[in-house]
Amino acid sequence: MIELGVNIDHVATLRQARKTWEPDPVWAAVEAHLGGADGITVHLREDRRHINDDDVRRLRELTQVKLNLEMAATDEMVGIACGLRPEMAMLVPEGRHEVTTEGGLDVLAQEARLQGVVGRLAEAGIVTSVFIDAEIPQIEAAARIGARVCEVHTGPYAHAFHGVGRDAESPAVLAELAKVAAAGEAIRALGMRFNAGHALNYYNVQPIARLAGVRELHIGHSIVSRAVFCGLREAVAEMKRLMRAAAGQGA
Q1: Is 70 tagged catalytic?
Q2: Which residue in 138, 153, 139, 137 sits closest to 102, CA to CA?
Q3: Of 30, 110, 164, 227, which has the highest C-beta tally within 10 A?
């Protein structure tokens, strides 16, 4: 059954705007859980621009759904992950000047190093995911390093969707959707779990949720944005309803 992982980074972004103690990401995680989230995702960045070490520690201790820790493949972050033991660690590229993650991780260019990272995480009992573009060579490299999950970057699909006025049947959108679908088939054929995420929202999520074999979608900014107007619990519940309806799994 398709699952929803809610990224709560931007709850912490709001907190950091005033350098205060609220809103609390842990409270957000509880509300997301009550709305139907199957997991919570946070990105602990090198510069701690939003989520910080104390947030991750409290999330590990207090949340009742699985925790997915987005992280760069650095010694510092691997050490933190091995200490906290989230259910999943997702390796992502990271740049100091990016607003959000831009593009997938180039697994192919750093296989040997990443294989060591995946091995360390596996020894700590952590499932490793890699955030990659919808490219077959990257998927094959992910399998070689021992990743158990590939999250396909849906940004190009989402940007095409927005660029043509939300026309889900336009050639540009269908072309990007086909790339994600082909990537998903390759991931599954290599024995890995097919997840997807990035720039998904209430208007473009259903074609992705409808793809064969997709197990989990990670969505953050759109849900947190809607929560400003209707509350986080309802925002999560509505996204989950859309995903389940698209996947033919009922409400």
Answers
A1: yes
A2: 153
A3: 227
